[in-house]
Amino acid sequence: MIMIEKNVEIAEGDLRGVEEGVQRLLHVLGYDDFDLGIKLTTNEEIRRYNNQFRGVDRPTDVLSFPYHIDLVAGERIVPQSDDDKNLGDIIISVEYLREDHDFETQPLAECLRILLVHGLCHLLGYTHDQEDDYELMQQKEDELLAVLRQRDA
Question: Which of 64, 73, 80, 91 could pair covalently with 126 via S-S, beta carbons 3.0-4.6 A apart?
């Protein structure tokens, strides 16, 4: 189940597109019956999370909190119980996006898709700390974005 919480204004069409897109991705990944939390929030709230969990006292665009913290990129989650059918949580500052992006060239819905794919990859064990990790994560992101864009065409 996808649980979306928001404490910022966002058009229902953009929100509906988020849920539909993420559901497609979970299906393609084979995690249809897994839980995923998505929180759309403000700069102030994401700054608090960023400071508390990463020691960085500033807002950012997206944070990911994986349920399976030791998962290796490309490894399949094998749940041992229903509780294990959880990917984790993705937090996105919509306010950060609105301040940082040019929506004439890239609509808010597309920015949200990109950040959700990025966050989802982190939940699946992908990182971008080292060059090899970055390339592997970029490939996975491109693959998942292609799934979303193919559906839109």
Answer: 73
Per the structure block, which two tokens stand in for 33?
């019956």
How many domains in the chain? 1
- Enclosing domain of residue 48: 2-152
Q: Provide the CATH number for the domain around residue 35.
A: 3.40.390.30
Per-residue pLDDT of the chain (153 residues; tens, 9 = 90+): 899 999 888 877 777 778 888 999 999 999 999 999 999 999 999 999 999 999 999 999 999 999 999 999 999 999 999 999 999 999 999 999 888 776 667 778 888 889 999 999 999 999 988 777 888 999 999 999 999 888 654
Long-range Cβ contacts of 129-133 (<8 Å, 24+ apart) = 133/73
